[in-house]
Design brief:
about 350 residues, alpha+beta, Glutaredoxin, Jelly Rolls, 2 domains, 11-stranded antiparallel beta sheet, elongated, disordered N terminus
């Protein structure tokens, strides 16, 4: 697991009848992690870092002293992270279910990409995603470092004395986390803590991944972290015209057209540019958006050279048409079984788009 990347650990999970299904570790941020540990002996210093934050959404600033006596769930996130988006229904449900029992949920927004540092972008995303609990903006990673965190998403459960009692990186482990929430609330003296567990049915982009058919890891488009780039001549920093190869191996990708490759992202200079990707997964997402605020970028998606039709994602129609109006994660493909290797292509009908990363589900 990379310390600077989102978790992509696929854990071994047990079925209800005691059988187990083993999945290999593919790459960070793509897979679920079900790591957790008790840390009741740890010094209660992490929450004090909240006092160094200067920007909050949905709440007045919260402090360690003011939270004493409450059970606190700290959720470290960034709004383009598909792994966080798929955990979101659970965190949202816990915040609603246990608020009257004294649970305080705090979202620590720690950006990965530069546009995620923009407060208006975070505010818009929180509203669209119905994140209604307190959000603290951690653009300088002060809280991130205080928790010695390395991943998106990460959950920390803190008891009424301010001690971390459970931590969990990535997706999965929801029943265990909720059981510990209930335990800590009872320890704190809350009466009538429910004993049942929430039942979550994530829809759209929040739906759980199809782990059994997932063969494509996350990949960045910027020069510093990209892998498997297949355009003729390779990627080079700066502006140049690219051409895609005739054939792709699984998880290779390519640019076509006039692009500027930067350290963090690629930017299209002239209309008609394309990005192609050979993938194997139910879902394909692309973090992208217009470089200039307020502009719109029309695009058209193809899968194996044809309109996606029933395999279209939530951000395109059956003919593959869509518009990028803000920088965020776009769901472009959601296909039905049987899942097989496919060639994806997106053509931009307007210049000025920036592409950051592909993720799958």
């Amino acid at each position: 697991m990379k310390k600077t990347g989102r978790i992509l650990l696929i854990a071994t999970i047990a079925t209800a009848i005691g059988a187990s299904v083993e999945a290999a570790v593919r790459s960070e941020r793509m897979a679920r992690a079900m790591t957790s540990q008790a840390a009741s002996s740890r010094a209660p210093t992490e929450l004090s870092s909240l006092g160094e934050a200067t920007q909050w959404l949905n709440s007045e600033p919260l402090t360690a002293a003011g939270l004493r006596g409450h059970v606190v769930l700290v959720d470290v996130w960034t709004f383009t992270c598909i792994n966080w988006l798929r955990t979101m229904p659970h965190v949202r449900a816990w915040a609603d279910k246990y608020k009257n029992n004294g649970l305080v949920v705090i979202g620590v927004h720690a950006p990965e990409f530069s546009f995620e540092r923009n407060l208006d972008n975070v505010r818009r995303s929180a509203k669209e995603l119905k994140v209604e609990y307190p959000i603290v903006i951690d653009n300088d990673n002060v809280i991130w470092r205080a928790f010695d965190n390395h991943y998106w998403p990460a959950l920390y459960l803190i008891d009424a004395q301010g001690r971390i009692r459970h931590q969990q990186m990535g997706e999965g482990g929801y029943d265990q986390a909720e059981t510990i929430i209930q335990q800590l609330l009872r320890e704190a003296g809350s009466a009538d803590v429910p004993k049942d567990l929430v039942s979550v049915d994530g829809r759209g982009i929040e739906a759980a991944a199809d782990w059994g058919n997932l063969r494509s890891p996350e990949n960045y488009l910027g020069f510093e972290r990209s892998e498997n780039f297949a355009s003729t001549g390779g990627a080079k920093l700066g502006r140049r015209v690219y051409a895609a190869p005739e054939k792709f191996r699984l998880n290779q990708w390519a640019l076509s057209g006039d692009w500027t490759v930067g350290k963090e992202a690629v930017r299209l200079n002239e209309a008609g540019g394309r990005i192609s990707y050979r993938f194997h997964a139910r879902d394909l997402h692309l973090v992208m958006g217009p470089a200039s605020r307020g502009s719109s970028i029309r695009f058209r998606v193809r899968i194996d050279g044809r309109p996606p039709e029933a395999a279209h994602g939530g951000d395109v129609d059956e003919q593959g048409n869509g518009v990028a109006r803000e920088q965020r994660l776009y769901q472009l493909i959601r296909q039905a079984k049987p899942i097989a290797g496919r060639t994806f292509e997106i053509e931009f009908l307007d210049p000025g788009v920036e592409g950051y990363s592909f993720t799958f589900g």
